[in-house]
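Lab notebook: predicted structure, single chain.

Context: the supervisor wants predicted structures on file for every construct in the current expression panel, including those that have not yet been purified. This is the next one on the list. No modifications to the sequence; it matches the entry in the shared construct table.
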Amino acid sequence: MHRSADTAAGTLESLAIDSTALAGNLLGDPSRRRVDVYLPPGHDGRGLPLLVDLVGYTAGGPSHTNWRAFTENVPERLDRLIADGAMPPVVCAFPDCFTRLGGNQYINSAAMGRWEDFLLQEMLPAVEGRFGCGGEGRRGVFGKSSGGYGAIVHAMRHGGSVWAAAACHSGDMGFEWAYLPDFPALLRRLARHDYSIVRFMEAFEAAPKRDDRAIHALMSLAMAATYDPDPRQPFGIRLPVDLRTAEVIDDRWANWLAWDPVVLAQQAPVIERLRMLKGLFIDCGTEDQYNLVFGARRLNRLLSDRGVRHRYEEFDDNHSSIDYRMDVSLPYLAAALSG
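Prediction complete. Output recorded below exactly as produced.
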């Protein structure tokens, strides 16, 4: 809800995109996708910069436009920041990228679907064509957690050509500390189902209530389907560890590491694309319970050593309920794209 009843409210419109990129995915997820679009008060969107919000694991774009108790949703936050003069007006798109495995890392996957292609080749043209916003040099991408991963990796892969600015809040990076510690718990969970991912999924989807441990197990499966999919396996999932001993399978784990932003940032073409950005914002909480601050510090050091202009911040908090950090990143992105 708005903090002040006097704050002018923007409008929300919704598009439905029938995606070719997502059709036939191994999860059986729908290829028709909703995209909510925020238009600031008094604007139809034409000529304004475009921001794209990539949400975190277990969320979808509409979760950021729905009513929220005790706080603002993202459109209300944008209303306030624009009304207060903290940022110029922007259009903001909220694509629904939720999957059967609970989330998305926003890259192409033989299991999850071609999500990178959906965003770049289908979502962006639909939004920009409808509202006359964005365009070359006027697009920014931001997100938190899995969404922060999506934002930084899109910047690394398409900085300058598609995206002109990016903000990564507590994004997945430093994979050896972010992901490997979760595998023993996943294996204990799978042991209840004779180490069958199919049986685990059947039990998960049939359960009247899903506890946090089951959801964290599902998250590990979602990462496997993203970074190292095997279309021959159920749901396209294979794990990078031995199911009995948790020993790392080196060649499979190497496929995961190839997508780690800390590893990607060591590649010259990636650095050149990041240098083309008008703005790059990275932050993480010092108490992040997924150990992501250590990867963020490594990435900050790599970018600084290579002369990539960026803004890096740490804040005294953990990984949860940190939408307030958008009060820093959204004005930063809007200023970069409006200059």
